[in-house]
Specification:
Elements: E1 2-8, E2 13-19, E3 25-29, H1 35-44, E4 48-53, H2 65-72, E5 76-78, H3 83-87, H4 89-95, E6 108-109, E7 116-118, E8 121-127, E9 136-142, E10 149-153, E11 156-157, E12 160-161, H5 171-182, E13 190-193, E14 199-200, H6 201-207
Amino acid sequence: MIVEIRAGGPFQENGFVIGCEDSREAIIVDPGDSVAELLDYSARAKLSIRHILLTHAHIDHITGVAAAKSATAAPVYMHRADSFLYDDAVAMGAMFGLRVDAPPPIDEFYSPGQTIRFGALEVRPHHTPGHSPGGVCLEVGAAGKRGQDLFVGDTLFAGSIGRTDLPGGNYGTLIASIRNVLFPFGDDARVYPGHGSPTTIGEERRVNPFLADDV
């Protein structure tokens, strides 16, 4: 599996290209201000983008959706509960002094038990609310097998967790999402957060101060 990370913009949000080495089919996750770099990498690596997947709809994670959609014509996926954030992207950008292109309509909302295939790999979205109502973790792995690579948006960070003081955020809900959805993947599962460095479930069990009682 190919995993390429690019961080950009004032929020240093992580965007990802995830590709199948054999088929060269790929997905883009959370195209924010680094979208041009993600698309450039995809072209140089000869990857064909099949899907654009959003972990949630806060402004820093969606500023590049319009450009990604225009360049690839790939369908855009999101959890329905974040529609109010997605639809308000232009106004939210203006609040931060940013010019944001209106994102294109969502092509498909995630559904329970859904799998999204690209080459020999597949994505399974898991609802992880708390940072936002429609936050999801994207489990990626070989088709038909449990994935060990988790793209978690702003649910969990190396040594921290997502903020819960934004509209629709809830601390108790976020902690429950981490404990009940993410932790069952096991200590070896790799975690790719929306900001900062990758980590593992085991590392966060051991050292994350917000999750100390889970050690």
